[in-house]
Amino acid sequence: MSQSPNRRPSARSAIDIAGGLFLLAIAALGYLGGFNLPVGHLSGIGSGLLPKTLAFLVATFGILLIVQGLFGGGPALERWAIRGPFFVLGAVVLFALTIRWGGLIVAGPLAVIMASLGSDETRPTEIAIFAVALTLLSGLLFKELLNLPIPFDPLGLIPSFLSYAYAGAKEGIAGFFAALKGALTR
Amino acid sequence: MTFDLISNLALGLSVALTLKNLWLCFLGCLIGTLIGVLPGVGPIATITMLLPITFGIDPVGALIMLAGIYYGAQYGGSTTAILVNIPGEATSVVTTLDGHQMAKQGRAGVALGIAAIGSFIAGCVATIIIAALAAPLTAMALLFGPADYFALMVMGLMFAVVLARGSVPKAIAIILVGILLSTVGTDLESGEERLTFGWTEISDGLDVAVLAMGLFGFAEILRNLEITQARDVVRAAIGNLLPNRKDFAQSAAPIARGTLIGSILGLLPGNGAVLGPFASYTIEKKLADDPTRFGRGAIEGVAGPESANNAGAQTAFIPLLALGIPPNAVMALMVGAMTIHGIVPGPQIMTKQPNLFWGMIASMWIGNLMLLVINLPLIGLWVRFLKVPYRLMFPAIILLCCIGIYSINNSPVEVLMTAGFGLFGYAVVKFGFEPAPLLLGFVLGRLMEEKLRQALVISRGSFMTFIDRPLSAGLLLLSVITIVLAVLPAIRKGREEVFQEAD
User: Fold this and answer.
1) B462 vs A contacts (CB less than 8 Å)
2) Domain, as residue range, for A175
3) Exposed site from A87, B19, B222, B382, fewest CB < 10 Å?
């Protein structure tokens, strides 16, 4: 949305050249992936026709962009951040790797803390407390209220007395509402 | 005709007004606003994140709730635009111009109020338009053969090219990439695996939610982290929420014009809705007695575009419901959501599932009313929410996104793929492409291939079928004209000016 200031115009447009190369790479992948598929004929199009045609079209535009970038001029390439993408996407990967095995109670705080490393404004104590609170809250929301089949604590990391206390409290509340309902309908 | 309209709406209201559906609509609006108000989280990311919470609900209720989430996210985006000067998505960019200025002058309440009132009026009108147009359009849709459908989608994509920001070749290229991505997975006719590179996880094709979350959820966060945001949450008092008589007098005509412009543009295939607010702002500025007031807190600059925004957001449902063709990225996601609930969008919905169809339309109006009723009193809450620093907000958004994606199919692999598409989306934006047309191409790609194949089978392999059929020939001609106009220097300049208004 907002143009960042380091995009200065120059005789060659690095952003277009890079964009063109990006398209060429995608086209190559698309062509390779559909390489063995039959193209078929017009009254019975084969499964390979569309991927191959599209790959050619994407490549054409890639070359067009490169030519345009070489001679047309335009904005330079924006700088790529490394820290943000590494930690943020790393957090997502970490979540994916741990959710089945350790449940939300492991994956949640890990993802939150890992992601938070992507920003230099993060404060350690604050984020630690926040990570735990957020995990418990989303457990309550997704597991208890919405009944989604997301694993919460398959390793049994929560001390059993806490689980008992929680189960007891839940039953108590349910009992209270049942009693209330009974009293109201009577 | 009129009688039909009333009886249909009555049927819809009888569905939408059940206690359960009212509750779902309310919940959808509330949660949608809650997430949509987060800076940098637009409707697309919001819907993807919240998709799993509708899983346990019956299809009618789920769609009503999703529609509520959508309106909520839209309105939440406007709130952020006014209070923090960060637009949630392209359509609320214009609102930041005068809305945030009003907020700085201590008139945030009035800006939010007029935005809500304008949106409500626009929503009412748009609902009636949808109800009135749905039946004739659906009847028309039955006349469409595969060739015509194909041509219509080509036209939609060409409109999307023209309406995208940036250069025309880049827009076309990124749409083609989207279509290429849609061919990943098992070919429906031959059963052959395409572009999967032997990876069985994607033999069912890529999930639209996974792609959307990567492109719009994660990539957006990566972009936000780069910009050291001077997030100036308005410090001035929110002030009175209700506009005074002078405000109303100034806003009435802009709201009416905005509603009209937005409704018409929203109907266009290829994300016409995005143009509504820009067009409305430009027109109000031209019509104003004193154009210099614009950009300095003119209430017309909030009332008009916000009405256009909401009207377009709603009439965009028409191509989806009547023809089964999503006109923009949000509606593309709605297709995904409907598919999960076993509903195939298209002309047959209205005849086969009138409850669902009219119930959803009626719930649109109720949803708009709810937004007015819940948002204005809760503005204090949204403001407090906005003051949460971004360093806490983005890890929370990441966690919610992960849980959301995981829950769609209980698949950790899909979460991994989302991370991959996050990186891909980051690259797409860095190379100066726009991600929204890519998603549209992705969703339309599958349908287009299917219709192309059908059309060619019927015509026994002759491409003349696209020109022989008057409907398809007309649509293709229109697409060619559109694209030629877009590259003509004079028009191109005008197009840039419209979008420049926001920068």
Assistant:
1) 42
2) 160-186
3) B19
pLDDT in tens, A75-84: 777 788 888 8
**Three-state secondary structure call for residue B57:** coil
Say yes or no: A43 and A106 in one domain: no
DSSP bridge partners of A132: none
Show residues of chain A in contact with B452, CB under 8 Å: 45, 50
Tell whether A47 and A32 lie within a shared domain.
yes
CB contact under 8 A, B407 and A58: no
Q: Considering only CB atoms, which chain B residues are within 8 Å of A28?
A: none
Find the CB nearest A45 among B226, B410, B456. B456
A92 with A106, same domain? Answer: yes
**HSE (CB half, 13 Å, CA atoms) of B398?**
39
Which positions 113-142 of A are in contact with B (Cβ < 8 Å)?
A: 113, 115-116, 118-119, 121-123, 126-127, 130-131, 134-135, 138, 142
Q: Do B432 and A148 touch (CB under 8 A)?
A: no
Any B CB within 8 A of A78 CB: yes
CA distance A15 to chain B (A): 5
User: Which among B311, B303, B307 is positioned nearest to B268, based on CA atoms?
Assistant: B311
B174 and B385 Cβ atoms separated by less than 8 Å: no
Does residue A30 fall inside a structural domain? Answer: yes
Please report the ipTM that was assigned to this predicted complex.
0.86
Asked whether residue A89 falls in the same domain as residue A151, the answer is yes
Q: How far is C-alpha B52 from the geometric centre of its chain's CA atoms?
A: 19
- For A44-64, the pLDDT digits (tens) are 777 778 888 899 999 999 999
Q: Distance (Å, rounded) from C-alpha B364 to C-alpha A90?
A: 39
CB proximity A109 to B under 8 Å: no
* Whether A64 and A123 share a structural domain: no
- Is the domain of A19 the same as that of A38? yes
Residues A34 and A64 in one domain: yes
- Domain count of chain A? 3
Which chain A residue has the Cα nearest residue B169?
A: A61
CB contact under 8 A, B407 and A81: no
Q: Is A151 within 8 Å of chain B by CB?
A: no
Q: Distance from CA of residue B377 to its chain's centroid?
A: 26
Q: Is A2 contained in some domain?
A: no
Q: Helix (H, G, I), strand (E, B), or coil: what is residue A184?
A: helix
How confident is the model at residue B240, as a pLDDT? 74
Q: Which residues of A touch B391 (CB under 8 A)?
A: 116, 119, 121-123, 127
Structural domain includes residue A4: no
Q: Kindly state whether residues A175 and A151 are assigned to the same domain.
A: no
Report chain B residues whose CB lies below 8 A from the CB of A29: 195
Query: In angstroms, what separates the C-alpha of B99 from chain A's closest C-alpha?
Result: 18
Q: Please list every residue in chain B whose beta carbon sits closer than 8 Å to the beta carbon of residue A127.
A: 391-392, 395
Q: Nearest C-alpha of chain B: how many angstroms from A23? A: 8
The per-residue pLDDT string of chain B (503 residues; one tens digit each, 9 = 90 and over) reads 566 778 888 888 888 888 899 999 999 999 898 888 887 788 888 888 888 888 888 888 998 999 899 988 888 888 888 888 777 677 778 888 888 888 888 888 888 889 989 999 999 999 888 888 877 888 888 888 889 889 988 988 888 888 777 788 888 999 999 999 998 888 777 777 787 777 777 777 888 888 988 888 888 888 888 876 556 666 666 777 778 888 888 888 999 999 999 998 888 776 777 788 888 988 888 888 888 888 888 898 899 999 998 898 888 888 888 888 888 888 888 888 888 888 888 888 888 888 888 888 888 888 888 888 877 788 888 888 888 888 888 999 899 999 988 988 888 999 999 999 999 999 998 898 988 889 888 988 888 888 888 888 888 877 888 888 888 899 899 889 888 887 776 566 665 665 555 44
Which distant-in-sequence residues (6+ apart) come within 8 Å of B285 by Cβ? B291, B294, B301
User: How many other CB atoms are found less than 10 A from the CB of residue B470?
Assistant: 9
Distance, in Å, from the CA atom of B313 to the CA atom of A112, rounded to the nearest integer, reads 33
Taking CA–CA distances from A139, the nearest residue in chain B reads: B403
Q: What is the pairing mode between strands A44-45 and A74-75?
A: unpaired
Partnered with residue B193 across adjacent β-strands are: B186
